[in-house]
Specification:
LysR_HTH_N, 61% helix, ModE family transcriptional regulator, Arc Repressor Mutant, subunit A, WH-like_DNA-bd_sf, two-stranded antiparallel sheet, DNA-binding transcription factor activity
Length: 104
């Protein structure tokens, strides 16, 4: 449904107003970026991204209210997950070459 790459793509679309530009920032083709957007739009009751075709003004894309809500929730999940595993990550890091401390 949604993972780090798709969330980054949504964030890029929100920041650039363009599926192509967001994809380029991530090193992917427009075709791949558009395919991911179509997949996300199909997975949710309402689309996450709306695009307008080119023309005199050029095309563009925007996150819908649902898209912004989904992205906000996903980023909170990531933040909470990172906080939940912080001690374990520190413990593993301490066991690595060049690790510091004892992880507690």
């Amino acid at each position: 449904m949604l993972g780090p790459g798709k969330a980054d793509l949504l964030e890029g679309i929100a920041e650039t107003g363009s599926i192509a530009a967001a994809g380029r920032r991530m090193g992917m083709s427009y075709k791949r970026a558009w395919s991911l957007v179509e997949t996300m739009n199909a997975a949710f009751r309402e689309p996450l991204v709306l695009r307008s075709r080119g023309g005199a003004q050029g095309g563009g894309a925007v996150l819908t209210d649902t898209g912004r809500t989904v992205l906000d929730h996903y980023r909170r999940i990531q933040q909470r997950a990172a906080q939940a595993v912080q001690k374990d990550v520190a413990a593993i890091t301490a066991l690595m070459h060049g690790g510091e401390g004892n992880g507690t």
